[in-house]
Structures are given as structure tokens and as C-alpha cells.
Design brief:
four-stranded antiparallel β-sheet, mainly beta
Length: 286
């Protein structure tokens, strides 16, 4: 994703620029220009984390943008995932590059597998990695061991989000799948659509789902009832978030974002000084 959210911070990217905002009031806080376009972002343990197209990984203080540490991975990463402690998995088609307190190391994909995305599972070091052939591959970041594959779909895995230890939601084709260490079952879907990002919040038991390049829904995980839907006729969605008492969030192209409170009142990020104030059409429904 190029936009991520938690109850304190919104963190996104527009080209080479990283852009941070406060979640409760959408005000801009800091920005930072990388040497190459940003390929993925994450928030974890007080860190705003980004990987650039040249392979540079940076850990920034989410509150003020101070660079805490950096590392160098290979160029052309596909995705970025972070664990609960700020450890990072950088995804490539043939491997996952890990950076955490144990150092830097690589987890190779099995022969013939092409990775697309990855996610940690809850408060654990288990990594699920999606593939172009619809499998989810399992890795243990602590031991570096490959834990086998779960067949999910005949479509590529577009996105993964951790639900609990050993459990994820995955999108592939027009369906969301409930994936465990040993099995996968269709959870819900949107017939005829190609689904994208999926995010989950354990505290509110809500998940967000991109149902088109410009549309998303937020749903109750237990009942699967829709809490809110949004459509952007002129913009593209670049990330989703469920932000606890502050509601729901949608990141957009050009570095903007909307937040919707629990009554579906719409708020938007204010531009950083020197950046244009973009305007857009938005449709909100149930």
C-alpha cells in the first residue's frame, strides 16, 4: 500500500515524497523526500516505515519524521509488510528480505513461485506471502523456515492482512478468503469485481475492502454487514485503514486522504505547506 493508518497517524506517499498527518484532525505533521519513488509504507510500534524503488528502507519517528534507522534492500520491491515491533518484510517476486532486531536476511520463495504481497499475523512472526498462482506461502520470520503452501484461488493474491496468530484475510479475483495455516475458505466477495486492498482491525472487528480501483467498503467481520461504502469517480485508492474510535480512512493518489467518523461524517487531510489543495468528488453510502 501507499497509504497506511492507525489511530494516531496517517502515513502516505506521492511519488518520492512521504507525507504524514495526524489521524484525529487530519493535520499535516511532516514530509520527507526520498531519492526514488516510494513503493510501500507501513506503521508499527511508533515507526513510519517506507521502502523506495531503489531498495532503501527507512524507519522514521511517526510523530516528527526523524530518521531512526535505514537499511538497503534490492531495487524494485513489490510490497512492504511490518510486524508489531517494527520488523520489516520487503517483498520481491523471488524472495522476502527481512530486517528486524535479528539483522538482515532473505527468505527464498520455492522454485516456480512468484510472490505478490505479504502480511504478518497478529502479534507473531508468521508471514503469509501471496503468489501469482493463488497460493499463500507460509514463513516463520524467527527461524527462517518455509512452512508450506495453502491453495486459495486460481487468481493471483492481491492483498493480505493478518487477523490473528495463524490467520489472515486474502483477496483474489472477486473474493475475500479466510486463510489459516492449513486451509482457505471463501469469506465474502463482490461478484464481477477485481478486489484489491484488504485491512483488518482486531479491536473493532471491522475490515476494509477495496472493491474497485476507486471504491471501497468497510464491513463488520462477524456479521459481514456493510458499515460504510465510498466511491471516488475521479480518484484512485492507494490504501485503507480502520482507525478505532476515529472511524475509517481511505488514502488516495496525489497524497490525499479522507477520514470518516463512526457517524460517517467526512473529513479530509489538509495539504502540507507548498503542496496543492486537491479537490475531489466523493459518494458515501451504506
Amino acid at each position: 500500500m501507499l497509504f497506511c493508518f492507525d489511530p494516531q497517524w496517517m502515513f502516505g506517499a506521492d511519488g518520492v515524497e512521504m507525507l504524514a498527518y495526524r489521524t484525529p484532525d487530519e493535520e499535516p505533521t511532516w514530509r520527507f523526500a526520498a531519492r526514488s519513488p516510494i513503493a510501500g509504507v507501513a506503521l508499527a510500534s511508533g515507526n513510519a516505515i517506507a521502502v523506495a524503488a531503489d531498495g532503501t528502507v527507512g524507519w522514521f519517528d511517526a510523530s516528527n519524521g526523524r530518521l531512526r534507522s535505514s537499511a538497503n534492500a534490492r531495487p524494485s520491491p513489490l510490497d512492504l509488510a511490518a510486524d508489531a515491533w517494527g520488523g520489516v518484510a520487503v517483498v520481491y517476486a523471488d524472495a522476502i528480505a527481512l530486517f528486524d532486531s535479528a539483522g538482515a536476511r532473505s527468505l527464498a520463495a520455492p522454485p516456480g513461485a512468484a510472490l505478490t504481497t505479504a502480511a504478518f499475523a497478529g502479534q507473531s512472526r508468521l508471514i503469509a506471502a501471496g503468489t501469482t498462482t493463488g497460493q499463500v506461502l507460509l514463513f516463520d520470520a524467527a527461524s527462517g523456515q518455509y512452512g508450506g503452501a495453502v491453495s486459495v484461488s486460481d487468481k493471483p493474491i492481491a492483498s493480505l492482512t493478518g487477523v490473528a496468530h495463524g490467520r489472515w484475510l486474502a483477496t483474489a479475483g472477486d473474493s475475500v478468503y479466510d486463510v489459516t495455516l492449513t486451509s482457505a475458505a471463501r469469506f465474502t466477495g463482490a461478484t464481477g469485481e477485481t478486489l484489491g486492498y484488504v485491512v483488518f482491525d482486531a479491536n473493532t472487528q471491522c475490515f476494509g475492502l477495496q472493491i474497485a480501483p476507486n471504491a471501497a467498503v468497510f464491513m463488520d467481520f462477524r456479521s459481514k454487514d456493510t458499515r460504510m461504502s465510498v466511491t471516488y469517480p475521479e480518484r484512485l485508492i492507494r490504501g485503507l485503514g480502520v482507525v478505532g474510535p476515529h472511524g475509517y480512512a481511505v488514502g488516495l493518489d496525489l497524497g490525499d486522504a479522507n477520514r470518516f467518523d463512526l457517524q460517517r461524517q467526512t473529513c479530509r487531510t489538509e495539504p502540507h505547506p507548498g503542496r496543492p489543495r486537491n479537490r475531489w468528488v466523493l459518494m458515501v453510502g451504506r
